[in-house]
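Q: How would the structure tokens look for this protein?
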Amino acid sequence: MAGKGLSWGQQVKMLPGNFWMANWLEINERLAFFGIRAILPLYMIYSVAENGLELSYTQKGIIYGVWALIQCLVPMVSGAFTDNYGYKKSLYVAYTINFVGYLIWAFIPEMAAASGGGLSANFWFAMLAACTIGLGTAIFKPPAQGTVAQTVKDENSSVGWGIFYWMVNIGGFLAPILAAILRGEHNWKLVFLCAAAVTAFNFIPTIFLYKEPERPASKKSLGQTGKDIVSVFTDARFVIFLAIFSGFWFMFMQLWDLLPNFIDEWVFSRDVAPMFNFMFGWLGDVTLPNGNVKPEMMINIDSFGIILLVLFVTYLSGKFHPMVSLILGMAISLVGFLMSGASNVGWMVALAIFIFAIGEMTCSPKFSEYVGLIAPPDKKALYMGYSNIPFAVGWTVGNLVSGPLYDSMGSRENFARQYLVNTLNMDPVQVAELGKDKVLETMASVMNNGAVPNQEMLDNAIRTLWDAYDPWRVWVVLTCIGLASTIGMLLFYFFTKEKKADTNAVNM
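A: Here is the predicted structure in token form.
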């Protein structure tokens, strides 16, 4: 048994310097990546007057969908590049590509203006930036994770991978906090420039401190590799399992890609602002001028919950069959996800995100564990590599569906324009000419006989739209996908369990 007879401290002492160097590189990469991911949903949607790109939710969904495919599927190929040409070379390529990608994000407004393409140019430059970051991140993953795999032994692999997972979440937790402080209200460019700087810094430890791991001398032929890939997709049980779990990732990624926009537009989070100011206010401003908590800080409750409880939750879930923990975690996540969009009250949304985090940390590790259990002994690495497919499918399809869905059923701007025309009888031409940043203000002003709107008037306008158009329905639709996935996983478990019992009875 791994680690048998060795204390936790003894297992940690066995980890070589290159292990810790890989963790350092990973933290820096996650700081840059999650820093921009925290603000991108807002940056892409905000108006040009607010230094945003003024894209629609449908356009944002398309960008995320293409990004997902590149980032999730390229590692299947880039891993071979790492094995053949070296870990350091892969890292250098990844840093360079990501550095360029962050700079593209930072200077999209200037590049779009120079091209003369207007808002359509914003979309295409954002697509270019997303694809660049997706490619760089995909190339970074194999050497980073491969270094960890090379430096741990059977005796301390659980501890080693546990530390690595912990480091990833620390980076994922700190990044949104730093991004929220750096961006102020609308200074998105500073976040992208800092992400580029952190990425460039990673060259220094990689060049001078990181040691090239040994690579296997023999390689499988292209034909054998192709046969291995085909064998994965002929395993019906594995393929069905991956297809079902795609529904969980469909739901999960909307917590990061869409919920920040929902919180920004609909949620009154002043009730939880004192808590956030107490915990993080000493670092900088974590609230907006209107008193609400910045959306990226609210979403960060997920990472905070994981850091706080993951060891305890994984200990408890270890007492059950992996599939039982997996289904339980999916069910808990389902409740948290639905709650997060069912209310516009800050403390309720904060609680919902925390509940979702409990479900996530209950089921996510068990997914990998179950894949390892059902994989043939000589193909475990191959199966683990292709277990990334549900993430790719869920992330991609989720954004392609949620973008248009939110445009039609959740967008505050679109509802405000409808309300101005249909209820307040404003001229449709005048409404169409309103800038994106002026729509809500105009609605609040018209509702108050032309008065200059204050914050209370704006809040009343938001509540009016909430009651009139029920934007929470978006989360009901998205939750139905997660519910279908959870039910499908439950049926899959009982079917495979019963089939296994029948097989054992025949063999007796």
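The radius of gyration is 24 Å.

Confidence is low (pLDDT under 50) at residues 501-508.

Upvote if useful.
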